[in-house]
């Protein structure tokens, strides 16, 4: 067999194995005149199998009617699923920050989609702080905080007067604001849209189980955990992102402090998950090039387990018992989330197509999309250009201090 024939057979077999790739990697300008990108009104983002399957086989709509293979998204979940009219699409990113970032970036930059008017519903489960809420609850966040993006000392070696081994980068105390920022530490989404989403979700009847009620009751003996002992509700509170799946009172309290510190006292540490800041950074970069509207993001997390043990429970038992409220949390993704989706679809023409104007700051800690963040040291941009490298703040402060000491001497 000649080399030419071998090469020809190879490329033919490759094309048959991946029939969607040639079309999907074209730019919009290169698409044939008959091509029309998918323009979903709502795009639902889940992170693992159970979160994705919460939307399959439901009576309201069928997201499995149109299945689109998208290069670059998770090899475990290689397709975006859409309704026949393309009004609702759903994707499962894979767990963790890297999976979330790459999947969402691949979709945002794919020529298969036009997402400029799309609402994004992040819909997944999370750990929950019993000081604020409980298992089975449905939470909607205004802030997402990347709590693990800090310096870390093993707790066995931390200074004796510290209650945590985590402290902000570029600082010397857990109470100092970081002087080194990467830009993904905090995101703020549209508070007006958050409130609308909550009002839609509040029309749902949440799922609960006897097992979840029994587990909640174990938290009643600790006064500060009273919210954790109550039944599930729908509420506004904020979410913490960490690739490491953590548990315990010390870490919970440390990240409660981080949430408050990084948001200048505005954020309430409530849920913890592994993806949201990565998803938001991918969407923010797409928004900076006009591909998505960052003010159309809803962060919904349902609580599946407590982030710390009840009185006299071992820390290991709390960590390994992941099914404290897992069943209700998965059910409530759908029960609350479908009300949000239906509310947007039903009010599309007279309310949502034009967008919901935010009265709060919307964006990242750098001020990348314009405006002045109401947390952190303020925007790094002047006239659309970055004037200060945030990682250099520490060195600039040290230089000013040395100059001051020199002049005083």
UniProtKB/TrEMBL annotation:
InterPro entries: Pur_nuclsid_perm. One of its GO terms (biological process) is transmembrane transport. Residues 1-17 form the signal peptide. Keywords: Signal. One of its GO terms (cellular component) is endoplasmic reticulum. It comes from the Eukaryota. This is Purine nucleoside permease.
